[in-house]
Amino acid sequence: MAIPIRFITIALVILSLSLLSSSITATETKRSEAEVQQMYERWLVENRKNYNALGEKERRFNIFKDNLKLIDEHNSVPDRSNDLGLTRFADLTDDEFRAIHLRGKMERLRSDPVIGDRYLYKEGDVLPDEVDWREKGAVVPVKNQGDCGGCWAFAAAGAVEGLNKIKTGELISLSEQELLDCDRGEDSGNFGCLGGSAANAFEYIIENGGIVSDEVYPYTENDTAACKAIEMVTTRYVTIDSYEDAPHYDEMSLKKAVAHQPISVMIEAESMKLHISGVFTGPCDHWYGNHNVVVVGYGTTERGEDYWIIRNSWGANWGESGYMKLQRNFHNSTGNCGVAIRPVYPLKSNSAFGLLSPSMFKFGGLFVLIGWVLL
């Protein structure tokens, strides 16, 4: 039976409109060389980039173009869960990004992991729907590890900062540089800017009797200096009693742990270098983890997407002011990007005596002064 001409005409009109729409989309995402060059120059200024080697600026421009093409292709997909953008890593290849910024390690040389059951999720446990330790004042502003692979030190310090606020009421920004300088070598399992483990850092803090503030021991973005001698009596700030793992491969137990305190985790972060917003769902091709971060909360979007709140150490011009939402309730027991494989957290008693803060020094000094006057 012959198809009526009007149906053929309608089909051709629909096909033409479809092709026109595709053409418009392709035109919108295709950028001229001049436009890309302008974007590159503006990005260089915003990120304070200055290349000294001959031809390096041009080489980085070509990498920038490749990353921009990836961003445009990703962001053109309808109903995507996250957006990519020109982060400070937009001039790096994936291999360079991995080699410089992803130095987290699972190995623990000091002691075997102790898996605690305090946060073991049990049937019937009632947990908050949402938690955000930033709103409770237990998270210091986002820091920037720079080109040093010291994520392990930032993840350890972040977890201790949060716990100390919960237990003592005082939020103190701690020294990652002390960990980089003083907690390194074959015996420690940490290797400065070449990588390490947050768990090993907790062990150092316990053995060392605490960790000082970054005001006393500021960050320098390298690990070439010797460990500074620190006057224990006048500058020691924060101590912890011990540390342990949350149950491995268990997102519900991780949720229970995060409901009580910020938790240090290891994630696979190779695909995160250009992330700027939304819920990151992948891809994550490996599950062994290569980057230490702190989980400082969890929640659900208006679209019903469950997520972890990740505090990173790549500065405030990455992600959402230095944070990201990572997909929660993943179909694999590892959690997305391995977030649930081996969470670890410090422990501290409710007593404030482990904290030697400026206010406590003033208080103690007042007693010394009164005693001297009475004498």
Automatic annotation (TrEMBL):
Gene3D superfamilies reported in the protein's UniProt record: Cysteine proteinases
Stretch forming the signal peptide: 1-26
Cathepsin propeptide inhibitor domain location: 40-97
Entry keyword Zinc-finger: no
GO terms assigned for molecular function: cysteine-type peptidase activity
Transmembrane residue ranges: 352-374
One GO BP: proteolysis
Entries under PROSITE patterns matching the protein: THIOL_PROTEASE_ASN, THIOL_PROTEASE_CYS
CDD domains found in the cross-reference section: Peptidase_C1A
One family name in Pfam for this protein: Peptidase_C1
Family affiliation: Belongs to the peptidase C1 family.
Name assigned to this protein: Probable cysteine protease RDL3
Organism of this sequence: Raphanus sativus (Radish)
Lineage of the species this protein comes from: Eukaryota, Viridiplantae, Streptophyta, Embryophyta, Tracheophyta
